[in-house]
Amino acid sequence: MSSDDPSSDLYRPNVAMILRNASGKILICERADWPGCWQFPQGGVKRKESPDEALEREVLEELGLPASTYKVISSKGPYCYLFSGGAKRKGWIGQAQTYFLAELTKENVVLKLDGLSPEFRDTRWIFPQEFKLNGIPAMKHSVYQQVFADFFDLNIS
Length: 157
Description:
16% helix, Nucleoside Triphosphate Pyrophosphohydrolase, alpha+beta
């Protein structure tokens, strides 16, 4: 299996959520360890865990949102990227991400960013066309461009 094959065991299985509210805005989160880096909630898929199960766990861990507060509309992927500089992390050369588009089912949800291992320091609701690539690491640019094209028919820069 080649290293650019998303089913390769060289890519860490990962999930990410695009959460949309009733006004059509999407949630982006500022990383706690990287001020100015805004991304979607995401995380690794554990062994013997389905992508759906991983998404539910990650969203609860990172945002404090139980599955009863959102409804998954669609999913696409995997979208693959390599870690910068040819780095390996725990044997992985990059990530193979499945993206989920979900809508809030409850109004006035409260995001909780103060879990045991806080991933984010802040959140924003923006319209998809407002997203700027300069807020994420270069290694993720092509994935985000493809995700915005696939989910919103947008060309972002």
